[in-house]
Every structure is written in C-alpha cells, then in structure tokens.
C-alpha cells in the first residue's frame, strides 16, 4: 500500500501546554464548566478542557481508602510529582522522547475540584464507581490532550481529528529458565487471562485479540489483531473524534459494539464526498481503511530515513506466536516480520522485555530484597525502593548485571527492571490522525490515487505510572491463578501439567496460595 500518511513534523503538544499554561490555568479562575469528563481507568479519572488541548488527571481511591488514608496535600503532590519524574527520567529515555509527555503536577483550588467531582459523577461508568475521585488534596497531573493533534494544517481542517487508543498488553512469551509452567511458553498471558476474566465476570465474551499478533510486525497479523480489538474492545481499544469518545466498550457488557455506527463516523475521513468512488462502500471497507492507517502509524520508524529498508527487531522463534491465537496456522508460522527499529511497538516491546526472569524468577529475588530490608530498613532509601525516580534509578535499571552474584544490588536491579516492564505492559498508545487539506505540502506527482485522503498523525504513549514495589507478591499470586485456571479450563486432561503445578495441594512451587476459585461460566 502506498503510504498515505505524513508525520506532523515537529508537533509538540507539550510546547502548546507550556505556552498556553498561564492563560488556561489561572488557578484563581478555575471553573468546572470549562472542563468535562473524558475517561478513567483503575487509578485515575481524566477531565478535558472544553477549548484547549489539555487534560487534568486526578487520582482515585477506593471508598475505604478515601476514608482511612487522608493524604496531606504535600503527600499527594509528592505522589504525583513521582509519576512525573518516573515518566520523564525513566520511561522517556526507554520509550523515546517523541512518544512520552510527562506533564506537570499542579495544585488546584479545592472548591473547583469538589464541583468538578459532582459534575462528572453522572458521566462515570458504573463499573468504575467502586472508587472515588480525590477531592481532598487538590493535586492533579496536567497533560496535553493526546486525542487532539496540534499542527497548522489541522487547524484549517474542517474534520475533527480522530484518535485511536490501544492498550496492547504484553507482546512476548517468556523464555526464562525459571518458568516452571510449560503452557506459559506456548500461550500468552493476555489470552490465558481472558479465560480467568470471563470466569470472574469481568467480561462476558472472550476477546479474539492476541498481543503477539499486534507486535509481530506482519501487517496481515496486525490488521487482524486490530480487527479483533474493534470487535470486542474491552478496556483495550477506544476511538475518539474531536476529543469525544465515539467507540469503546459498552458498560452494558451484553451489548455488542455497532461497527456500522462506527463506519458511519469514519466514512467522511476515508471516503470523502469528492472521492472517485461514487457508490456507497460497505462498512468493512471503511473500517479496513482505518485499520491500515493504524498499522502504518504503529510501524512508523521515526528515526529512520524514509528511503531504504528500516532495521528490524526480531524475537527468537518460539516467542512470537501464541497457540491460543485464532489466526490461521500458516499465517502464524510464517508471519513474524519483526518490528522496525524505534517504531512505537518496538520501543514498548523492548521495555516490556526488561522482565527477563518472569515473575517466577523474580519472586525469589524480591524475597531477598525483603529479607535485607527487614535487617537494614534504612537501606530502603539508598536502594531507591520508592524512588526518587531520577538518573540514578534509571542507571540501576540499565546497568543491572546479567548474572546473579548473590548481592542485594542485583536483586534490587531486577525488581526495578520488572516494575518498569510492568509499566510498559500496562501502558496505552494514542494514535491521533487528521486529514490534510488539499495543498498540504505534498508533491502531487507521487499521488497515484488522488481521491484517497492523506493524514497527519502523532503517536504517544500514556499511563506510564510506576508500579508499586509491593505489587510483586500480588503479581506472583495472580500469575499462578491465571495459569492454573487456564489449564483447568482448556486442558482438563493434561494431568501431567496439572501435577506439575501442585494444583491439588493448592500451592505452587514458591509456596504461594494458588487454590482455584470456580465461578459459573
Ligand atoms: O494485572 P493486569 O494485567 O490485569 O493489569 C491491570 C489492568 O487490568 P487489565 O488486565 O488490563 O484489564 C488494570 O486495568 P483495568 O482496571 O482492568 O482497566 C489496571 O491497569 C491495573 O493497573 P493499576 O493497578 O491500576 O496500576 C493493571 O495491573 P498491573 O498488573 O499493571 O499492576
Ligand atoms: N493525556 C491524555 N490525553 C487524552 N486522554 C487521556 C490522557 N491521559 C489519559 N487519557 C484518557 O483517560 C483514560 C484513563 O487514563 P489512564 O489510563 O492514565 O488511567 P489509569 O487509571 O492509570 O488506567 P489503568 O486502569 O490502566 O491503571 C485513558 O484510557 C485515556 O482514554
């Protein structure tokens, strides 16, 4: 396919944020009517400014925590500043300057925050209302609105920008020798987790998406992966138009998403009225156009020259296909083309793979750190267990020795690497696209289908918070539960594998409780 995309060179929403900051964020004039509900995840709620390309990300607490842990403003500000530092000093160098916008910690008037909380309450999905927005500290993270694209041609463009948000999750199979469960080298974590989520009632249908297809670098596999995300978006896929969410998982999990509705939204972008194609195109043609654009943006190698073959990152055979993927076997066998170096997926995958030992190899090292800290609690600060997230923290992550010398430094380095990898396994990608006007800087002679629209786009990564040190034990238990559930659910006759898991004893090899809880499916 001819590349119809042109990067919005020099687009830096952060600059826009700074230059307009004093104008928009005059703290004494903050008015809740200037802000509207934008979205939320497990830990934060996001509101967007109605005029300017800016969002505020406010922390959330579970109702019990909100009553019990009254963080002082100073503590809350420190927490948010830690997020900024981690994004800026740790994740940005690993993921790339151009993809990461760390934003800034701000203190807001309490009255504004309370009014805002009341205003957004009715917009919040029921499934997220187990937590409340922090209205006590007045602290928030101010970020560029990454669903918008600020470049000169977009201002002239009458069609609002589109933005596709993908939470890709973990894109490789572990190859660590510490892995005791064979199935983990065959079926990816996301696909196994789907069965566990279905049993727990988190979702009503299995997603056919497999992250290994998205990260394969093979366009056919990637297109199918995105199609599967569209079919069943869960919390992995959203589409925004002009900053408004027009496609996401329905809170009523029984209702299937309406792809025809989505295609209606997309038609003017991909099949504009002046198009040479006069007859109405079926929805799937329009959706396919969008998918092609997303794939191109995800594979775009921002540091490579346009001419010549971009360098590719290849994973070793066996780590690249998931046995649970529903794609045709021959496509999976021959369909790993590697990712162009420095494209957004390559950066994310490289960072995810800092988890080189798998949770099974990491857990004993975590316990080594725990024992050491019990003996020497003051060492917590030197080892930067809870930050600060500065250059020295990054060096601990990057310079961790390859071999275990039995030291606590090695163990801490691996735990830090694991936590960074966890952030990369849980981040989201924003691909913002806008159609270019007729005369926007392209040599017309290269066009072979003049009726096709052209796009500017920007790619960003969001949700780059540090994962708490303590979460390692939780991860270890969750891993055992997901794997054991998967084995029970899909391979009930695989007694050898089940025996290996000490399933009947309710304990795994690390002695963690992995007793299964059964729910009707
Ligand atoms: O453990 P996972 O893989 O289920 O990931 C959690 C996510 O669930 P998912 O599987 O994507 O639906 C979960 O997402 P949801 O709340 O399910 O949308 C969070 O992102 C959670 O991160 P945190 O604890 O809020 O920092 C994520 O927890 P971490 O494991 O990243 O800490
Ligand atoms: N800078 C931004 N620009 C535009 N939209 C954003 C921005 N930051 C967050 N969002 C939107 O808000 C949603 C929630 O934000 P985020 O993922 O950071 O929350 P979270 O609670 O940390 O998520 P998680 O459940 O993964 O822990 C995102 O999915 C995205 O749609």
Question: Nutshell version of this structure?
Answer:
Belongs to the IPK1 type 2 family. Helix 15 packs across helix 16.
List the helices and strands and how they pair.
Layout: E1 5-7, H1 13-24, E2 35-40, E3 44-49, E4 54-62, H2 63-68, H3 73-95, E5 104-107, H4 110-121, E6 131-133, E7 139-144, H5 152-156, E8 162-166, H6 189-200, H7 211-214, H8 219-231, E9 237-241, E10 244-247, H9 259-270, H10 283-299, E11 312-313, H11 329-334, E12 339-340, H12 344-352, H13 358-375, H14 379-382, H15 391-398, H16 408-426, E13 428-435, E14 455-462, H17 471-490, H18 495-500
Parallel strand pairs: 1-14
Antiparallel strand pairs: 2-3, 3-4, 4-6, 4-7, 5-7, 8-9, 8-13, 9-10, 11-12, 13-14
Helix pairs in contact: 6-17, 8-10, 9-10, 12-16, 13-16, 13-17, 15-16
Residues 38-44, 46, 55, 57, 143, 145-147, 165, 238, 426, 428, 462-463, 465 line the site of adenosine-5'-triphosphate.
Structure characteristics:
binds adenosine-5'-triphosphate, alpha+beta, 14 strands, disordered N terminus, six-stranded mixed beta sheet, 18 helices, disordered C terminus, six-stranded antiparallel beta sheet, ATP-binding, binds MYO-inositol-(1,3,4,5,6)-pentakisphosphate, nucleotide-binding, globular, 521 residues
């Amino acid at each position: 396919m001819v590349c119809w995309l042109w990067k919005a060179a020099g687009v830096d929403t952060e600059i826009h944020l700074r230059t307009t900051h004093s104008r928009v964020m005059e703290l004494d004039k903050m008015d809740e009517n200037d802000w509207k509900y934008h979205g939320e995840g497990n830990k934060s709620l996001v509101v967007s400014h109605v005029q300017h390309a800016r969002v505020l990300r406010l922390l959330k607490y579970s109702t019990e925590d909100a009553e019990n842990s009254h963080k002082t403003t100073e503590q809350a500000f420190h927490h948010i500043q830690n997020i900024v530092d981690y994004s800026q000093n740790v994740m940005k160098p690993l993921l790339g300057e151009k993809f990461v916008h760390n934003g800034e910690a701000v203190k807001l008037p309490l009255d504004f925050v309370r009014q805002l909380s009341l205003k957004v309450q009715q917009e919040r999905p029921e499934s997220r209302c187990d937590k409340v927005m922090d209205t006590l500290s007045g602290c928030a993270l101010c970020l560029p609105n990454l669903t918008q694209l600020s470049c000169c041609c977009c201002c002239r463009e009458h069609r609002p920008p589109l933005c596709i948000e993908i939470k890709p999750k973990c894109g490789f199979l572990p190859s660590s020798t510490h892995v005791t469960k064979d199935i983990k080298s065959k079926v990816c974590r996301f696909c196994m987790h789907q069965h566990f989520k279905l049993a727990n009632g988190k979702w009503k249908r299995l997603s056919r998406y497999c992250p290994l297809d998205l990260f394969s670098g093979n366009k056919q596999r990637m297109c199918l992966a995105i199609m599967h995300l569209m079919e069943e978006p869960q919390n992995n896929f959203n589409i925004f138009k002009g900053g408004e969410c027009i496609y996401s998982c329905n809170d009523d999990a029984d209702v299937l998403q309406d792809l025809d509705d989505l295609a209606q939204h997309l038609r003017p972008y991909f099949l504009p009225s002046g198009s040479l194609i006069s007859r109405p195109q079926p929805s799937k043609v329009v959706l396919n156009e969008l998918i092609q654009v997303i794939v191109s943006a995800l594979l775009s190698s921002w540091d490579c020259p346009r001419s010549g073959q971009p360098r590719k990152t290849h994973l070793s055979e066996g780590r690249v296909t998931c046995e649970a993927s529903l794609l045709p076997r021959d496509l999976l066998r021959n369909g790993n083309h590697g990712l162009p170096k420095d494209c957004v997926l390559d950066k994310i995958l490289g960072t995810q793979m800092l988890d080189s030992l798998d949770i099974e190899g990491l857990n004993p090292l975590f316990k080594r750190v725990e024992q050491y800290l019990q003996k020497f609690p003051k060492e917590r600060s030197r080892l930067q267990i809870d930050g600060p997230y500065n250059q020295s923290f990054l060096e601990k992550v990057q310079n961790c020795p390859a071999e275990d010398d039995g030291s606590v430094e090695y163990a801490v380095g691996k735990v830090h690497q694991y936590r960074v990898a966890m952030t990369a396994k849980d981040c989201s990608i924003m691909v913002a696209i806008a159609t270019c006007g007729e005369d926007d800087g392209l040599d017309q002679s290269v066009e072979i289908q003049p009726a096709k629209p052209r796009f500017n786009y920007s790619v960003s990564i969001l949700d780059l918070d540090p994962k708490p040190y303590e979460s390692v034990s939780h991860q270890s238990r969750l891993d055992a539960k997901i794997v054991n559930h998967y084995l029970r659910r899909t391979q009930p006759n695989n007694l050898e594998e089940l025996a290996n898991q000490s399933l009947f004893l309710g304990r795994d090899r690390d002695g963690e409780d992995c007793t299964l809880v059964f729910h009707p499916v």
